[in-house]
Design goal:
Blueprint: H1 4-9, E1 18-20, H2 37-51, H3 58-69, H4 74-86, H5 92-96, H6 101-112, H7 115-120, H8 122-134, E2 141-149, H9 151-158, E3 164-167, E4 171-174, H10 177-181, E5 191-199, E6 209-211, E7 223-226, E8 231-239, E9 244-251, H11 257-270, H12 277-286, H13 290-302, H14 308-324, H15 328-345, H16 351-366, H17 370-388, H18 393-408, H19 412-429, H20 435-450, H21 454-471, H22 477-492, H23 496-510
Parallel strand pairs: 5-9
Antiparallel strand pairs: 1-3, 2-5, 3-8, 4-7, 6-7, 8-9
Helix pairs in contact: 2-8, 2-11, 2-12, 2-21, 12-13, 12-14, 13-14, 14-15, 14-16, 15-16, 16-17, 17-18, 18-19, 18-20, 19-20, 20-21, 21-22, 22-23
C-alpha cells in the first residue's frame, strides 16, 4: 500500500511550527516553565477567529484570495472551482487533508502568523475545530509522528525536557508506528526523528483531537489530528544505534495552568461573548501591530450593518491606535466622538464612559496638558468607584494613571502615593501576572530611580519585565523599553558592563520592530 500522498501533504522535512517554554536563552530572568508571550498572543488571535460570528461573504473573500494564489495553475484553479461549488462545514477536514491550495495556505498563515491570511481562513479554522470537537477521541491513545529536524532544533528540545512545547499548527499523527516510519527517508542534512505521543482525552483544558479516518481525503491512513495550539510536555529524548531520535511527549491540559490562566484573563478583557473585527483589531493593537489594527477598525466602519455601541467602540479603538502612533489631536477627536455616542446612549455613570474619560486623559497627558488630564482622570475615578467600589482593578489603573501625571510634574512624593495605592489594590484584587500590575511596577521603578534608590528601582523594573514577558512576544517594543530601564539603573550604579548587556538586548528587539 502506498502512502505517497500523505508524504506529500505532511512533508516530514518541512519545519514543525513549535513554541517552546522559555529556556533563559538570551532572556532576562524569565520562568523556565511557562510558554512565551508570542504563543499566548497567537492563541488569542485564533480564539477570536473561532468565536467570531460567521458572515455571508467570508468564504467568497477567501476564494478571491485563492484565485490570485492559484493564478496560472489550471489544476489548482479546477480544485478551487470544486471548492467553491461543494465546500460545506461538514467537509472541512476532507478538504484540509487533500493535497491542495487550502492546506498550504492555512499552514502558511499559521507558520508565519500572517494575520491577514488567518483572518481570511477563519471560517475554515472554525469548521475544523467544530469537527474535531464533535469527533473527539474518547479513550487514551499512543501515537507517532515522524519528522526531519535540524540538530539545532533537537538541541532546543533537549533543553526543554520536562518543560512544555506548544504546536502553532495542526499536528498530524498516526496510530501505527511502522506507517509513521515509512514516511522517513535518510537525509544528510537533517536528523531522523520519531515523536511518540501519549494523549488522554479525559484531561481538562485540552484542545480537541480526533481520529479523522472517516472524514479524511485519505481514509486508509488512520490519522489522529490535534487542534492547533495543543500543548505537550517533553518526557525524554534518545538516539538509537540506527541514528533515529525518539522524542516522547504527553498532552497536557490544566496542568499547564500558568499560560491557560493568562490566556483566559486576556480573553475576558477583550470580550466574554461573541467576537468581531474590532476584537481582532484590539488584539493586533496589543501586539503592537498598529497599522494592521487600524485597517481592521476601518474595515468595520465600512460594514453596512453596525449598531451605535459598536461604532463608539471602534472610534475608541481608533483613538488608542492614533495615540500609540503619536497622533494626539487625531486621537483626541476619535475619543471625543466615541464619548459623544456613549453619552447619548448610556447612563452618565456607565463604566464605559469612564473608559473614554480615561483615554481622553491619557491623550491630554501626552500633550502635556496636565490640568485637563487630571480633570478627565478624576471623572473616570468617580464613575469607577461608584460602579465597582474602591478596590477594583479599574480603580487601581486610574490611580496609577493619576500618579503618572504627578510624575511628569516631578511631584515624586505625590506620584508615589498614588502608585502605592494602585499597587495595594492590585495585590489584593489583580492576578499576580496580570499586565495591569506591570504598569504599576514600571512607574514605581521610575520614581525610585529618580530618587536615586536604585535597588528598589531594580526590584520594580524586574517585576514589570517579568510580567510583561508572560503575555508579550519577545519582539514587542514594550519589552525593549523595560530592558532599557533596567540598563539605565545599572548605568547609574556604575555597573557599565551589566548596563550594556541590557541596552544590547533592547537594541536587538528594536531592530526587529
Amino acid at each position: 500500500q502506498s502512502y505517497q500522498p500523505t508524504l506529500n501533504r505532511n512533508r516530514v522535512d518541512e519545519p514543525l511550527p513549535m513554541n517552546f517554554s522559555n529556556t533563559n536563552n538570551n532572556k532576562h530572568e524569565q520562568s523556565t516553565s511557562d510558554l512565551s508571550g508570542q504563543f499566548i498572543q497567537s492563541q488569542l488571535l485564533i480564539d477570536c477567529l473561532v468565536r467570531m460570528k460567521p458572515t455571508s461573504n467570508e468564504k467568497n473573500d477567501f476564494i478571491s484570495l485563492c484565485q490570485q494564489y492559484c493564478k496560472g495553475n489550471t489544476a489548482e484553479l479546477s480544485l478551487l472551482n470544486e471548492f467553491e461549488k461543494f465546500y460545506s462545514s461538514e467537509r472541512a477536514l476532507w478538504w484540509y487533508t487533500r493535497e491542495a491550495f487550502l492546506y498550504r495556505l492555512v499552514n502558511k498563515a499559521l507558520r508565519i502568523l500572517n494575520v491577514d491570511l488567518l483572518f481570511l481562513c477563519r471560517f475554515f479554522i472554525r469548521d475544523i475545530q467544530k469537527q474535531l470537537e464533535q469527533r473527539q477521541c474518547s479513550s487514551f491513545v499512543h501515537l507517532y509522528r515522524c519528522q526531519l529536524m535540524s540538530i539545532e532544533e533537537i538541541q532546543l528540545l533537549q533543553k526543554s525536557i520536562g518543560k512544555y512545547v506548544a504546536m502553532n499548527s495542526y499536528l498530524s499523527t498516526s496510530v501505527n508506528r511502522r506507517q509513521a516510519l515509512s514516511f522517513l527517508d535518510y537525509s544528510s542534512d537533517f536528523e531522523l526523528v520519531l515523536f511518540e505521543i501519549d494523549a488522554d482525552p479525559q484531561l481538562k483544558g485540552i484542545k480537541p483531537f480526533s481520529n479523522i479516518t472517516s472524514l479524511s481525503y485519505f481514509p486508509e491512513e488512520e490519522e489522529i489530528l490535534f487542534m492547533l495550539g495543543s500543548i505537550f510536555r517533553i518526557i525524554s529524548i534518545n538516539r538509537d544505534e540506527d541514528e533515529l531520535w525518539t522524542i516522547r511527549m504527553v498532552l497536557v491540559g490544566d496542568e499547564h495552568q500558568e499560560s491557560n490562566l493568562i490566556i483566559n484573563q486576556m480573553k475576558n478583557e477583550y470580550t466574554e461573548q461573541e467576537t468581531n473585527i474590532i476584537t481582532y483589531g484590539n488584539i493586533l493593537r496589543d501586539m503592537s501591530k498598529l497599522n494592521e489594527a487600524e485597517k481592521y477598525y476601518r474595515r468595520f466602519l465600512d460594514q453596512s450593518s453596525k449598531n451605535s455601541q459598536d461604532i463608539a467602540n471602534c472610534y475608541y479603538s481608533l483613538g488608542t491606535v492614533a495615540c500609540a502612533k503619536g497622533k494626539y489631536d487625531e486621537s483626541l477627536q476619535w475619543h471625543l466622538d466615541a464619548l459623544s455616542i456613549k453619552m447619548d446612549k448610556l447612563s452618565s455613570h456607565d463604566p464605559n464612559i469612564a473608559l473614554s474619560y480615561n483615554c481622553i486623559a491619557i491623550v491630554y497627558r501626552k500633550k502635556n496638558d496636565h490640568r485637563q488630564a487630571l480633570k478627565s482622570y478624576e471623572k473616570s475615578l468617580k464613575i469607577w468607584e461608584k460602579s465597582f467600589g474602591e478596590n477594583h482593578p479599574k480603580v487601581a489603573m486610574c490611580l496609577n494613571n493619576i500618579g503618572a501625571v504627578y510624575e511628569d510634574q516631578k511631584d515624586y512624593s505625590k506620584a508615589l502615593e498614588y502608585y502605592e495605592m494602585a499597587l495595594d489594590i492590585a495585590k489584593k484584587h489583580v492576578p499576580i501576572d496580570h499586565r495591569a500590575r506591570s504598569a504599576v511596577h514600571k512607574h514605581i521603578g521610575n520614581i525610585y530611580c529618580m530618587l536615586n534608590n536604585y535597588d528598589h528601582a531594580l526590584e520594580h523594573y524586574n517585576e514589570a519585565f517579568r510580567i510583561k514577558s508572560k503575555f508579550l512576544s519577545n519582539q514587542h517594543p514594550s519589552l525593549a523599553t523595560a530592558l532599557r530601564s533596567i540598563g539605565i539603573v545599572y548605568e547609574k550604579k556604575g555597573l557599565i558592563q551589566k548596563a550594556q548587556k541590557y541596552f544590547k538586548q533592547a537594541a536587538d528587539i528594536d531592530s526587529l520592530t
